[in-house]
Amino acid sequence: MKVSRKILTYGVIIGIAFLSALSYQLFVFPNKFAPAGLNGLCTMIQYALGIKVSVMNLIINIPLALIVMKVLSRPLAIRSLCYTLFFSFFLVLLDNVPLEAFAYNTTNGTSKILGPMVAGIITGFCYSVLIRGSSYTGGLDYVAALIHIKKPETNFLRITFFLNCIVALISYFVYDYQIEPVLLCIIYCYLSSTVSDRILRNERSAVKFEIVTPYPDEISKEIVTKLRHSGTRIAGEGVYSGEPTTLLLCVVNKSQILEFETIIRSYPDTFAYLSTVKEVVGNFKHLKKNGQEDNPLLDDGSDGIL
Predict the structure, then answer these.
(1) Which ranges of the chain would DSSP assign to H, the alpha helix?
(2) The pLDDT of residue 17
(3) What is the pTM of this model?
């Protein structure tokens, strides 16, 4: 099972490398703007000097991957390097494929914003998948991770954001002193980071129920047997009636909301209110709708084996 999961992980990384390369060919290169990260620098070098992104991607990322392998994590570096190699390979391959009919490019600038928007959304999706497979896209991810090792108090996302701002600023001078490429880069960065953050947070999020009830034993039993979760019981007293009551605190998966509400409705004089929990850490099981534990599809490399 572990071997098959690792094989699947590398297959997904290769597939994401192809999707990223296709996005560059269809939405980035035709619209003459620099995306985020070191690939943004590579794109500007290709525009100014004619050196292909596929070549510069290897020249820059391979040494960085070797440093990360030595300083940070061997599995992380190997998987990231796998993405880098196949991303460059697919860029070269797609260079020889007639994609003009599918590429989004407007000669008069009308709706030029759509290309970077689509590219940013695709990149955000790709990034979230790679993170689940314990991989980077290379470039500034390597740099930010290495800075974070030396200065762990520094926020990883802030480092990446600062470095991307530098890329956006440089693009002003490369693309004939025009502000439009800078704005397109900012839009791309915002959408890619927002999409990846939403996807990753949604997987780690849950729902917290706070239940006020005179039937704590019965409801607690149903939570344990039907939802396979536990909770916390707090003794209380009704403000109006002065009668003793109980407050139950329970965190469940989003897929279990309807089942939880069905349990609550079956008890009179009981009500509950819920709130979204952004992330749950520690002893909490993420369950599927059928009640089975949701094991991650991709291998995270935590066992130290490639």
Answers:
(1) 2-23, 37-49, 53-71, 74-95, 114-132, 140-150, 156-174, 180-204, 216-227, 257-265
(2) 94
(3) 0.77
